[in-house]
Amino acid sequence: MWRLYQFPLCPFSRKVRLLLSEKGVGYELWRENPWDASDEFWALNPAGRTPVLHDPEKKTTLCDSRAICEYFEETVDQSPMINGTVKERAEIRRLVALFDENFFTDVTGPLLQERMKKRIVLRQPPDSRRLREAMKMAHGHLDYIDYLIDTRPWLAGSRMSLADLTAAAQISVADYLGGIDWSGHEQSKGWYSVFKSRPSFRPLLSERMEVITPPAHYSQVDG
Amino acid sequence: MWRLYQFPLCPFSRKVRLLLSEKGVGYELWRENPWDASDEFWALNPAGRTPVLHDPEKKTTLCDSRAICEYFEETVDQSPMINGTVKERAEIRRLVALFDENFFTDVTGPLLQERMKKRIVLRQPPDSRRLREAMKMAHGHLDYIDYLIDTRPWLAGSRMSLADLTAAAQISVADYLGGIDWSGHEQSKGWYSVFKSRPSFRPLLSERMEVITPPAHYSQVDG
Ligand SMILES: N[C@@H](CCC(=O)N[C@@H](CS)C(=O)NCC(=O)O)C(=O)O
Ligand SMILES: N[C@@H](CCC(=O)N[C@@H](CS)C(=O)NCC(=O)O)C(=O)O
């Protein structure tokens, strides 16, 4: 059985969980905090990052969320998530990078630092200037999602794809940490609430990470 | 004809150039500095990053170096670079992420900031503490390459792959900026010098970026 090394607020692990669930691949959760990683974990992933997917019986280890998603896209036919023409596939991968890198650097990363790491690891107060900056950047990214959803039912085109899973994974962590103000983003909100009601998403929304509590709307499907 | 938006020291653009050259795909270079990007460039890539590959006639735009490489892997049979079993392909992609993300964050990114951006954009002196830290991190990454090359002819296994192109692209920029001390890294040095003599690599090594000059060994094949 696959074992997923992760922690509840890791957006890259959430993307992998959404993909595995959409594709009907079973796995068990294995808690690992990268800031406090075990030697066993470093041996599995020399980059020291979550997610890692490991099958002890098959002696298979997969690292990096994009490499993991490509692996399951190549091995499991159900619910293709990097699908279509070569141009469409390039568009999916462009958006995956945009959310994994730009959205993470601008929004999710700073929120995790200020509201998770400072609270439960560093025991410092958050930097309110950095939080305001991250929330401002979130508006810019939601504007871009509004724009995409104005012309396409899903982020990368006519079908749900890894771009949607990636964006939803990042946004869900930012939303948990109180970083998303949905007002003025009707298209993004509509797209995200369809997502929130999917069976793949429900387990993520019901999890909590230690003392950190999300805002009331976080796990409400119509929130 | 493909037009590659890039600047000479962008490691992600170098990876794409190596791949296109190995695959025999023609393109023209188009200079773009992301810190000073034109509106035309932002319209092509809402992430505002190089590399972007654009074909004005075909009206095709590809963004993000990994998405670009996957596109050419899917469309051009010559010199497969993400090849082998699904496990081997996952290993290639793991290493691509390791060099694009960890090596870049630890080494190439800080060197570009201190030795390129501060020199030609910000007109500030480099922070010598950050430079020392980046060079120390480079040693750690070269240790890992030494370890891989001890057991495999190429980074991801028995064949040259996108992992090698990615690592070589990052290392070449770090080396240009004086951040690589090769002493004590015989395996890495051997692997890299084989690479440096490839026809795909030669044009990169002869280019210079403005007033920034590389160390003498940088473009010597036996250096
Ligand atoms: N490219 C990686 C990024 C993973 C990543 O950055 N994970 C974070 C947790 S959300 C981590 O482990 N950070 C610890 C570190 O970078 O040292 C992926 O897509 O899997
Ligand atoms: N994931 C991207 C990263 C590209 C990237 O970070 N490019 C740098 C230049 S080396 C850039 O454009 N930085 C400007 C910015 O991030 O605003 C890729 O692989 O293409």
UniProtKB/TrEMBL annotation, chains A, B:
<feature type="domain" description="GST C-terminal">
    <location>
        <begin position="85"/>
        <end position="215"/>
    </location>
</feature>
<feature type="domain" description="GST N-terminal">
    <location>
        <begin position="1"/>
        <end position="80"/>
    </location>
</feature>
<dbReference type="InterPro" id="IPR036282">
    <property type="entry name" value="Glutathione-S-Trfase_C_sf"/>
</dbReference>
<keyword id="KW-0808">Transferase</keyword>
<dbReference type="InterPro" id="IPR010987">
    <property type="entry name" value="Glutathione-S-Trfase_C-like"/>
</dbReference>
<dbReference type="InterPro" id="IPR004045">
    <property type="entry name" value="Glutathione_S-Trfase_N"/>
</dbReference>
<dbReference type="InterPro" id="IPR036249">
    <property type="entry name" value="Thioredoxin-like_sf"/>
</dbReference>
<dbReference type="Pfam" id="PF13417">
    <property type="entry name" value="GST_N_3"/>
</dbReference>
<dbReference type="InterPro" id="IPR040079">
    <property type="entry name" value="Glutathione_S-Trfase"/>
</dbReference>
<protein>
    <submittedName>
        <fullName>Glutathione S-transferase family protein</fullName>
    </submittedName>
</protein>
<dbReference type="GO" id="GO:0016740">
    <property type="term" value="F:transferase activity"/>
</dbReference>
